[in-house]
Structures are given as C-alpha cells and as structure tokens.
Amino acid sequence: MLRVGALAVVMLSLGACSAIDRLANVGSQPALSAIQDPTAQPGYKPVRMPMPQPAPATFQGNSLWRSGSRAFFKDQRAQQVGDIVTVKVKVSDKANLDNATTRTRTNSDTMGMKGLFGLETTISKILPGSTASALVDTDSANNSAGTGKIRRQEELVTNVAAVVTQVLPNGNLVIEGKQEIRVNFEIREMVVAGVIRPEDIDTENTIDSQKIAEARIAYGGRGQITDVQQPRYGQQVMDILLPF
Description:
The chain is of the alpha+beta class. The protein has helices spanning 2-24, 120-126, 224-229, 233-241, and strands at 84-111, 136-167, 173-183, 186-196, 206-208, 213-223. It has four helices and six strands; from the N terminus they run αβαβββββαα. A hairpin with a 5-residue loop joins β2 and β3 (173-183).
C-alpha cells in the first residue's frame, strides 16, 4: 500500500514538473535539444556493415600518389562492398481485370434390350415395373457461372540509399537499403533490395528501381495507426482456422 502511494506521489510530481515547464514556455517556440555525443547515450551500439577487403597501400618511386586513395577524377560510383548507391523508387501499378466464366453440361443415357434370348419377359418378374426395352434411362445437367473483377492502382515515388552488401563473380552488385521515418507514434518503413549492374548506375550514383533484378521493395509502417487498421489477433487466428 505504501509502495502504491509512493508511486502515485512520484507520478503526480512528474506531471506537475511537465505542466510547469509547459507553462514557462507559453508564447515561445519550443526549444530544440542540444547536440550531444550519440556514442555516449545509453543503449548506443556501433553499426557493423559489410566492408571490402583492405587493399595494401603501394607507392611508386618518386611519386606522391598512393594507389587506392580517393581522387577527384576517380569514378565515385558504387562498385565494391560497403559503397552507397541511391535508388530512385518509382512504382506505378495499374491493373484492370475482368473475368467471366460460364459452364454448361447436359448428359442423357438410355439403354434397353428388346431381345434377350427369349428372357425379355423374365426381367419384369425379377425387376417389377421394368421392361427389357427400357432398362436404363439417366439424365444429368450441370451449370456453373463465375465472375471476377480487379481494380487496382498504386503509385510510389521516393529515393532510398542502399549499401552494396556483395559483389557477385560476374561483377553485379547486391544492394540492400532500409529507411525509417518516425512521425509522432507512427513509423514508416521503406525497404529496397536486389541485384544491379554497375553499368546501370548513372553519373550521380543513382539507379532506377526498374533496373533492379530480383527487386524486393516494401513500403509499410508500424505504430498505433497501423495497429488500429489491423484486425485483432484473435480474429486473424479465427480467419485462418475456420474453414467456412
């Protein structure tokens, strides 16, 4: 009981401090946070990315040039593991599909034996109500009709920076990039991955998404709004398990 009371007092104190700070800033613009060392923040983890094999530095005699160093006239486009290339994502998808199916089948079978070695009259005794000239008479009819319609239109235009994660034996580059933008309590995610040719990278170190082979492009989000738009977990489970 004492712990609950102490917790309530702490919460009220924090709320009062927040209210005092807001009252002190009435009529003024919200202040920006001071720049701090991100490596000194709690929970900081250094980023580990795939890097190319270090090239040994070689020097030519009587020359200040070092092979492998960055140069103004050197091709700055992505070409090795760890380099960054900008992907211009432009997806314009429009589909209109109308499907209609109609199926009809009618069958009719009749079989009779007017002569059966003189035993035509015996059949009526064995099977009362039947005659040898009309032993079997069947009719069947089957009709089915189905219609389907799809109307879809999507358009996505944005730029995402991707990192070269692998250089294939034929020289093609495997890239992967992820972008996250948080707005209030919602995070928008953009993922791009695939295989590109170095020749398709233009002089600005960018490449169109249409030139990515095995492209994997995902655009979505997570947060409170996304959770509200999704059905409850129980409803999703029931939709999977219930056969009807």
